[in-house]
Design brief:
It is built from two helices and eight strands, in the order βββαββαβββ. With 114 residues, it is of the alpha/beta class. It has one domain. The strands form two sheets. Strands 3, 4, 5, 6, 7 and 8 form a six-stranded mixed beta sheet that branches. Strands 1-2 form a two-stranded antiparallel sheet. A hairpin with a 6-residue loop joins strand 4 and strand 5. The radius of gyration is 13 Å and the shape is globular.
C-alpha cells in the first residue's frame, strides 16, 4: 500500500509510518504528563497524532514544546484508565505512549479520542 494514502483505521495503533514508509519502532510504555515533561527536558521529541479516519500527523521537532504547552497538556488523559471526554476542553483527549526503535529521536504517539 502507498503510505502517503494510509489512514488510521483503529486505535490503539500497532505500528507507525510516514509517507515514505513504515517506522521500525514499538510502544514501550504509556505516559503521564510528568513522564512527558521529563522526556521533553532530556531530549528532542517528535509527537505524532493518530486520529481514526485521518493520516498520521507528525509534529515537527521545532514545534514540539509549543504543541505540548498549548495543545497536548490540557487534553492529556493520564494513562489508559477510564476517562470522561466532557472533562476535557473541546470534548477530546489524547492517550500518550512512548515508542522506541531505529529512530534516535524520541517518538510520542498521541491517540486521539473524541
Amino acid at each position: 500500500m502507498d503510505n502517503s494514502k494510509k489512514i488510521v483505521t483503529q486505535l490503539p495503533l500497532s505500528k507507525l509510518w510516514t509517507d515514505e514508509g513504515d517506522i521500525d519502532a514499538e510502544r514501550t510504555r504509556h505516559l503521564t504528563d510528568k513522564n512527558i515533561q521529563e522526556i521533553l527536558s532530556a531530549a528532542p521529541v517528535e509527537f505524532v497524532i493518530a486520529d481514526v479516519g485521518l493520516k498520521l500527523q507528525w509534529i515537527s521537532l521545532d514545534q514540539s514544546f509549543d504543541f505540548w504547552k498549548n495543545e497536548l497538556k490540557p487534553h492529556l488523559a493520564n494513562g489508559m484508565g477510564v476517562f470522561q471526554l466532557d472533562k476535557f476542553p473541546g470534548n477530546y483527549a489524547y492517550v500518550a505512549s512512548e515508542w522506541s526503535g531505529e529512530n534516535q529521536t524520541k517518538i510520542i504517539l498521541l491517540e486521539k479520542y473524541h
